[in-house]
Structures are given as C-alpha cells and as structure tokens.
Amino acid sequence: MELNRRTVIAGAAAAGIAATTLGTGTAQAASGGKKPVKELFGKLADGTKVYRWSLENGGTRLKVLNWGGVVQGLEIPDRRGHYANVSLGFDNIEDYVAKTPYFGALIGRYGNRIAKGQFTLDGKTYQLSVNDGVNSLHGGTQGFDKHIWDVEPFTKGSDVGLVLHYTSIDGEMGYPGTLKAKVTYTLTKHGDWRIDYEATTDKATVVNLTSHVYWNLAGEGSGTIEDHELSIAAGRYTPTDTGLIPTGELAKVAGTPFDFRKTKTVGRDIRDGHVQQVQAKGYDHNWVLDKGITAKPEHVATLRDPRSGRTLKIATDQPGLQFYSGNFLDGTLTGTGGKTYRQGDALCLETQHFPDSPNHANFPSTVLRPGQTYRTTTVHTFGC
Ligand code: BGC
Q1: 9, 52, 177, 232: which sits with the fewest CB atoms below 10 Å from its CB?
Q2: Which PANTHER family match (predicted)?
Q3: Count of structural domains, the chain
Q4: pTM
C-alpha cells in the first residue's frame, strides 16, 4: 500500500481524528511548512551552547542539533494518524557527547571504514585518526558528527529547512586539504526529508558524506526491527574481512541472505550463519546499487513496518548503501523515550560511496580536487 501523506491527513480529517492526535503540524501541512524554531538543548563541557531546531512540513516533524547535524527526532504518523519518533537518539547532549554510536549524525569526512586509516593520493600516503581497532571509522575520533555546525534556517516556496556549514581544516583527523562542507536538510510539502551535500577543497582529498539515522518505523524504543520489511535494488554487495573492510570483491547476492531484491523481513535470513553475517553479527555491509552513480536521486530501498504501516523510501544518486542492522546496540544506552536499545532495535541505511574506496582502484573514486564541487542528494519519502 502506498498512500501519500496528504491522503493520510485527509483520511484522518474525514475520520474525525482530533487535531490533538495529529498535532499542530497537520493544519500547517496544507498551507506550507512552519518556520523552523530554535531552542537551547544543552551545553558542552566548555560552555558552548547546543541548539535544537524543530521543523515541520507535510506531516513530518524533524528535530536537528547544531552538534553534528544530529537528527535528534523524526516524527511521522502511522495509518491512523498516530505519530511516533522513528529515529533513535538521546534527550540530552551529555549522552550524545559521551556515548552516541552516531545516532542521527552527519558523517564525514569519510563515512564508513578506511583500512588501517591509511590511503595514498598523488603519491603521498596519509595516516588518518584510527578509532575502530586498527581502522578509521566515520572520519576518525572527532569526525564531523562531533563538531558544532553553523545552522541557518530557511523557508523557500513550500519547503522549509536548514543549511548547515562545517569547515574541516587541512590535516584534521589526518585528511589533506581544508574541506568546506555544506549540508541542506529540506522538508518538502509532502513531508519528504531531502539531504543535499556539497563540499569543496583547497587540496586533493577524499570525501564520503552520509547520514546515520537509526530507523525503527514502529517508534524508537519499541523493540526489534526484525519484522520490518526491506527491499534493496542491488544484485551485489561488498564482502568484508573480519575488520569489516571490503575485500574488493563485488559478490552476487543471489542465493545468499544478502538478497533483498525481493521484499523480505530483516529477520528472515539474519540467522543463516553465512560467514559474512557471523563476522558482522548480522548485516553490516555495503550493497552495490544496480543503478550505479546517477545524475539524480533514484529509488534504491524501501523499508516498511507492517504493524504501523509506516514506510520509508530512499532515493539517492550514490553508488552504495550500507545496511547496518544495529548489531552493536547492546542494551546499555537509554534513548529519548526512556527505553534501552538492544541489538536489532534499529537499522541504518546509509547512502554512500563504498567503504575503503581510497584503497580499491576498482571502486568508484571518492577523490575531490580543488576546483571541483562534491555534490550528492538523498531523499527520504515517508508514507503509510
Ligand atoms: C557501521 C557499523 C558501526 C556503526 C557505528 C555503521 O555505519 O557500518 O559497523 O558499528 O556504524 O555505530
């Protein structure tokens, strides 16, 4: 079933669902988005203020921190108009700083892993910050997710959104070149959440930006996502070694638990005992999207919670999708709604270039040179 948001709202209104059930966003949705609202969320240890921006449009409510561009909450209605926050997070900045596994964050300068934190570009070898055993993960110890971004709100036509800027200086986390990153979060009148990434550099470098939302379409803290249905338009994936670094092979998904070309539940084959699953404790792999790199975002994955009817469709121009089944959530983190998060209580679908691309000549290049502009877009479409 694929009803769009306007149908749901109209249906809810026809069914006489009270305004309080749907919240104030419903009335706003018809006439365009609400102006983003800023409030104090907390303070860093050095006194720096962390703000939270609240946006609403087309029935989607988005809460974003200026720390790491973190999506602190994302609320969408189910088929009866009941809202739930479908993104894992914390209700305070201290937990984000101390222990977040990248909940909702913007990831850079290089999303995913780089083997031994090393790569060679134009004959020079760079040593990056290493934070995942011997490897570098999500930009190193102080990736883009752990910095304050400049945030400017906007309303443009029927869109509302935020423009986030972060400048990563030459040598930060070991990466060459001062990289100016600009990320635009837009909520459209249909309630879609669009992310436009841009970056420029003053020296040749590598870039791979992504967003690390942990999805649970039944609501964060509501239990496992193993019953969520998932499809991924990819006939191949990149198998990894025990450190989750791609071996370089583009293996066929056919006949393996990695085949999501036809919709199946996340849990159906997750215990198959495939060596790739055993070493990752579930799914934690990059799918090689059949469409490849495209000029415009194209649909690549659909996630659906059969209980609530909520759906998420992802469109991207990127060549890869990391599907991570929340394997390292272990019941030690207490989330926004006061519940602990256990293994498989959420999943991530990170649109990206392949992990460790700088060390694989057969993977699409992630090199950015002075004068070029890195540009990529991912669109999240919600329905029920
Ligand atoms: C990676 C996981 C990692 C997680 C950190 C994901 O993007 O694929 O291996 O544990 O991020 O939260």
Answers
A1: 52
A2: ALDOSE-1-EPIMERASE, GALACTOSE MUTAROTASE
A3: 1
A4: 0.93
